[in-house]
Amino acid sequence: MRISQLTLRQFRNYPKAHFQFSPGTNVIVGQNANGKTNLIEAIYLLSVAKSFRTRINTEMVMFDTSFAKIEGDVDAHSRHYHLEMVLSQEGKRAKVNGHEMTKSSDFVGIINVVVFTPDDLFLIKGSPRERRRFMDIELSKLSNSYLYHFNQFSHLLKERNLYLKSEKIDPVYLDVLTSQLVDEQLILIARRESFVSKLNVEAQKAYARIASQKESMTVTYQSGFDLTASDLRQSLMHTYAHDRERDIRFGMTHHGIHKDDLMIALNEREAHLYASQGQQRSIVLALKIALLQLIYDEIGEYPILLLDDVLSELDDRRKTMLLDLLNDKIQTFITTTSLEGLSHQVISRAYKIEIRNRKESR
């Protein structure tokens, strides 16, 4: 899985720029605020159709312009793709090989990327919403079917919540909405359980290589439903029947996968409460390494790895562990303000791009 070139127009601080990349390691060097992270963000957008920095499209559009455009040539799944994305106040438009995509599920995941940034400690310290978002994005990249069913669930949840606020409730219609909501959740729960189980196995292996032998980490899926029930559909319907009066009274759906969480633990204790800052960084690094292997096992190709200014945040041991992953099988992008933190081995084989005065120079 490779991206060979990228063209930006009116994206962030780039009026117009064109980049060509190596299929191996690419090191993007430049001072802060010159646009290194913007370049990484553009590649990420071509994978997920979302930014890892903002949920507001217009923040990515250059000031005093009406739209931003990203184009990239990629090779994935033994095919070549030309991907385009336009961001504006009206929303996003995506094209694949010149054909406009009407559904996000037809665009997301054509290329798969794993991004690692200093802000990724939110996976430990952040709210359940952040961990759900992590889980849903990774699953959507692996399966457009997951993204389709997730969008269906989101639409039904919104419709049910609106109906719960109605002055007059028809119990038959509410049951129909609830039944449809349950059916979508059964699909999504099964996918989430499988994903987290595989992630847990790979993360434990990675953490054992990074940290002390006396420490162990686990990742488990937490649901508000009883997932051990012999008839899960019946169990979910019973939960909603029990909650009906409360849901109507508050005008919202109290149970559902929109309340799920990932429990990340160190030595069987909640990491956000008991793990040190260094241990938390090791856990996040283990999760990212686990994703690389999990994605390879699922689709037969390694994803593109984006390392945005993380080397300065890691101690020598963790940095070495991460850099040892770099090989010809994984196309990697590293942003840094200086080459000093990189080994001679990495620098000698890397393709270097210097970002200076908001332009590319070599």
UniProtKB/TrEMBL annotation:
Under the cellular component aspect of Gene Ontology, which terms does the record hold?
cytoplasm
Q: Name one GO biological process term.
A: SOS response
Q: Name one Pfam family in it.
A: SMC_N
Which terms are listed as keywords in the entry? ATP-binding, Cytoplasm, DNA damage, DNA repair, DNA replication, DNA-binding, Nucleotide-binding, SOS response
Cite the PROSITE patterns for this sequence: RECF_1 (PS00617), RECF_2 (PS00618)
Q: Which InterPro entries match?
A: DNA-binding_RecF (IPR001238), DNA-binding_RecF_CS (IPR018078), P-loop_NTPase (IPR027417), RecF/RecN/SMC_N (IPR003395), RecF_2 (IPR042174)
Binding of ATP occurs at 30-37
The principal location of this protein is cytoplasm
Q: Which GO terms describe its molecular function?
A: ATP binding; single-stranded DNA binding
Q: What residue stretches are annotated with the RecF/RecN/SMC N-terminal domain?
A: 3-355
Name its cellular compartments. Answer: Cytoplasm
Q: Belongs to which family?
A: Belongs to the RecF family.
Q: What does this protein do?
A: The RecF protein is involved in DNA metabolism; it is required for DNA replication and normal SOS inducibility. RecF binds preferentially to single-stranded, linear DNA. It also seems to bind ATP.
Q: By its UniProt entry, which PANTHER family does this protein fall under?
A: DNA REPLICATION AND REPAIR PROTEIN RECF (PTHR32182:SF0)
* Protein name per Swiss-Prot or TrEMBL: DNA replication and repair protein RecF
The source organism is: Candidatus Fimiplasma intestinipullorum
Lineage of producing organism: Bacteria, Bacillati, Bacillota, Clostridia, Eubacteriales
